[in-house]
Design goal:
The protein is of the alpha+beta class. The protein has a domain of 59 residues. The protein is built from one helix and four strands; from the N terminus they run αββββ. It has a two-stranded antiparallel ribbon with strand order 1-4. Strands 2-3 form a two-stranded antiparallel sheet. A hairpin with a 4-residue loop joins β2 and β3. It starts with a helix and ends in a 40-residue tail after the last strand.
Length: 96
């Protein structure tokens, strides 16, 4: 093997394999353990299929659990303040 190729593999392969392992671990934490019964619409017959259980994820499955945020009576967040204009407006906050 070419020495430059060897150095390339030593630099690239460990971080790539680490990110792959991390993705597998994170995905394993998000395996849904809840089921919901649902039917599909079959096309072109336009008939419903039989009921089947499908895996679903809920908020409880997310780890770490999302923090509780105080809301006002309209559902707006109280922990973030911005200029009140009285009209609907779009504003970029924290790069989002």
């Amino acid at each position: 093997m070419n020495p430059s190729m060897h150095r390339f593999f030593l630099r690239v392969v460990p971080p790539a394999s680490a990110s792959l392992i991390l993705a597998c671990v994170l995905n394993a934490q998000c395996i849904p353990n809840h089921q919901i019964a649902a039917r599909k619409m079959l096309y072109p017959q336009r008939e419903w299929s039989e009921w089947q259980d499908h895996p679903v994820r809920t908020v409880e499955d997310i780890s770490p659990a999302p923090k509780t945020v105080p809301l006002d009576r309209f559902g707006g967040r109280l922990d973030r303040r911005s200029v009140k204009t009285g009209f609907y407006n779009v504003r970029k906050i924290d790069g989002r």
